[in-house]
Design goal:
Layout (H helix, E strand, L loop, with lengths): L33 H6 L5 H14 L38
Length: about 100
């Protein structure tokens, strides 16, 4: 986890698994968008709290501010993860 930029600011969600998932547009480690990652150090604590709430929803964790059973979506669906397609051999490539 990266240290805070300023004393008293909210901690970064970074878990040092920095890889953007092309199917979701989120980092595989912290579940932030590239813009949220880039802007984190300049965000107000209020905006950081909003990002943390979005992260919880992206991970499929219920929003604690929405009562259970309330109408509407309080959990975002997890992205579907299809297995990668099988590798196709290249003609003339004998490296097996």
């Amino acid at each position: 986890m990266k240290p805070n930029s300023f004393p008293g600011s909210l901690r970064s969600p970074c878990v040092s698994v920095c890889r953007m998932e092309p199917d979701t547009g989120y980092c595989a480690g912290c579940h932030r968008t590239i813009d949220e990652i880039a802007d984190w150090g300049m965000m107000s604590d209020e905006r950081k709290r909003s990002v943390w709430q979005q992260i919880r929803l992206r991970r499929g964790v219920p929003d604690p501010t929405v009562p259970p059973g309330a109408p509407g979506k309080d959990v975002l669906p997890a992205p579907s993860r299809s297995p990668p397609p099988p590798l196709t051999p290249v003609p003339g490539d004998e490296r097996r």
